[in-house]
Write a structure and sequence with these properties.
- The chain has 170 residues and is mainly beta.
- It has one helix and ten strands.
- Helix content is 4%, strand content 58%.
- Strands 1, 2, 3, 4, 5, 6, 7, 8, 9 and 10 form a ten-stranded antiparallel β-sheet that branches.
Length: 170
């Protein structure tokens, strides 16, 4: 659901819930349910484009499911979440060309918590990753954009990277 009652402002939220098994026979956790929700906002006054989002998810009844994965390095979490804020500014425009630098700060934890397990099998919650991204988009025509950004991670510093991309929307 979105609300657009003020020019340039969008505020909204969404929710999804459903069974994880998809009616699969012999699924280890047939009653496991995945629930995802978010709240988001975007404000575009003049040349600015400001946005923010918070999302959270839960998976119920993961105890049985994770027992079948005993020893697996990637057990199924019972909760996860994350958020970001981003600011972009249209710095230059000439005909179809538009240069828009941006900065984004985000935090996410894909292993916020785990359901209790028998002694010796417990899994510790994961750390919250923090990422700062600085970059720019150069629109070079209708629906075509060249993208470049640099991402700096605080927990997994080996993931620091320069990203280059091309986007096409039709």
């Amino acid at each position: 659901m979105n609300w657009r009652g003020v020019p340039g402002l969008l505020v909204g939220g969404s929710i999804f819930t459903g069974k994880a098994s998809h009616a699969t026979t012999d699924f280890a956790a047939p009653s496991a349910r995945v629930t995802l929700w978010d709240v988001h906002a975007r404000y575009t006054p003049g040349k600015w484009d400001l946005s923010a989002l918070y999302a959270r998810g839960t998976i119920s009844n993961t105890e049985t499911l994770n027992l079948t994965f005993s020893g697996n390095p990637n057990p199924v979490p019972s909760s996860f979440d994350g958020w970001y804020t981003q600011a972009a500014y249209q710095a230059w425009k000439s005909q179809d060309y538009v240069l828009t630098p941006f900065i984004r700060y985000e935090q996410f934890n894909t292993a916020r918590s785990y359901a209790a397990q028998p002694d010796g099998l417990n899994v510790a919650a994961g750390p919250t990753e923090k990422v700062t991204t600085v970059g720019a988009n150069l629109r070079v025509g209708e629906g075509v954009v060249l993208k470049a950004d640099y991402q700096k991670f605080t927990e997994d510093t080996a993931s620091d990277r320069l990203n280059l991309g091309v986007g096409y929307s039709f």
